[in-house]
Design goal:
Number of helices: 14
Low-confidence stretches: none
Shape: globular
Strand content: 5-15%
Number of strands: 9
Radius of gyration: 20 Å
Distance between the termini: 36 Å
Order of helices and strands: EHEHEHEHHHHEHEHEHHHEHEH
Length: 365
């Protein structure tokens, strides 16, 4: 697998490649259909303006996040784009049988050859009760502890190379390499590159040891970013996939035409997080609802802490914040997630960031 399937190229004046992480957020008064239409608009915008990749994250039982089925959403986005890389950021592997994921992403690869990424995480992407319902087991720690074995099994299915004598030797993920060895078979040489995702040191160390690319969730675990990236680089072993480390970080960023509007929008997103963290998940509230909300002292402290790690403001302020983050962490790529109530606000934010960095203008401009 060539490293150029992983490494991107910076566009305009951006310090590193810029990408998009979409949580398919649903605002109050909006539907999941509205959110998915916004995702199509965002993916098309990202492709036109030179963002490197577009990932969708797996979440469950969260009314304000309509991304429970990344593979389904990615198939939809593949039908509406032509060039941009599409992928999961990520699929929570312990929720699924490895063969199922190999089949889903083999199908996506057949739909969009050479531009599909498979990002994997070991967290459930939800609360414990929902994870138990997904996995049909109460032994949730077992899934996380078995992650390296599940990962190895998934890669074997993707490469169709279980050794002789293995119980899965005659089982094949289709679409996949077995089609090339069937009579008259022709199969694409591509298979989705595997990324490991994390918010602590476990996946950083594993990604390094396996020589895989690594994506860190800075947007909700900022205090662990630099230690995790350092651990990844220190533990990195060159592989057939990569000869040197490659790490991206997810970062919350929202640009608006004026600073006050940016603050209003991130306050609404922060209120959504307050409700999620206190067991009251719901739709993303409007800025008006957030401004009228009576935050308790504890909630206000959470909001202040949360928004301190959200790069927001005018386009120039966001550009400066992203530049500083890239320099401070040494990240090879920044994957931006814009959380706000309205889809139009999110689309506008990516437009403003693209303009601030002088990313390629739309063909119609």
């Amino acid at each position: 697998m060539a490293a150029d399937e992983i490494r991107g190229a910076a566009q305009g004046s951006a310090p590193v490649p810029l990408s998009v992480l979409d949580l398919v957020t649903v605002g109050a008064g909006r539907t999941a259909s509205d959110a998915l239409r916004t995702s199509v608009d965002l993916a098309r915008l990202a492709e036109r303006r030179g963002f490197h990749r577009y990932w969708v994250a797996e979440h469950h039982s969260m009314p304000g996040v309509a991304s429970s089925s990344p593979a389904v959403i990615l198939a939809h986005l593949a039908a509406h784009t032509d060039r941009i890389r599409l992928g999961s950021g990520g699929v929570m592997l312990p929720n699924h049988a490895p063969l199922v994921i190999a089949e889903q992403f083999g199908t996506l690869e057949a739909m969009a050859p050479g531009r599909v990424d498979l990002g994997l995480g070991r967290a459930p992407g939800t609360d414990g009760a929902t994870a138990a319902a997904l996995r049909r087991t109460e032994r949730l720690n077992e899934g996380a502890d078995d992650f390296p074995q599940q990962l190895a099994e998934l890669v074997r299915f993707l490469d169709d190379d279980f050794p002789d004598g293995h119980p899965y030797r005659r089982i094949h993920a289709v679409p996949g390499p077995v089609q090339a060895t069937s009579p008259g078979g022709v199969q694409s040489p591509h298979r989705p590159p595997v990324w490991l995702l994390g918010s602590s040191g476990f996946s950083a160390r594993l990604a390094g040891a396996l020589g895989l690319p690594f994506a860190f969730a800075h947007h909700f675990s900022a205090q662990n970013t630099v230690p995790a990236l350092d651990l990844y680089r220190e533990s990195f072993q060159p592989s057939a996939v990569l000869d040197a480390p490659y790490a991206l970080i997810g970062v919350s960023a929202l640009a608006a035409d004026d600073e006050k509007e940016a603050r209003r929008q991130v306050l609404a997103a922060a209120l959504s997080m307050v409700r999620l963290r206190t067991g009251r998940p719901g739709l993303v509230p409007t800025p008006e609802e957030a401004e009228a909300y009576a935050f308790s002292p504890v909630e206000r402290d959470f909001v202040d802490s949360w928004n301190a790690n959200v790069v927001h403001g005018t386009p120039d302020e966001v550009r400066s914040g992203l530049d500083d983050l890239a320099k401070r962490t040494g990240a090879d790529e920044l994957m931006i997630t814009a959380n706000a109530h309205g889809g139009g606000v999110r689309v506008r934010s990516y437009e403003l960031i693209a303009d601030a960095y002088g990313l390629p203008a739309p063909a119609s401009a």
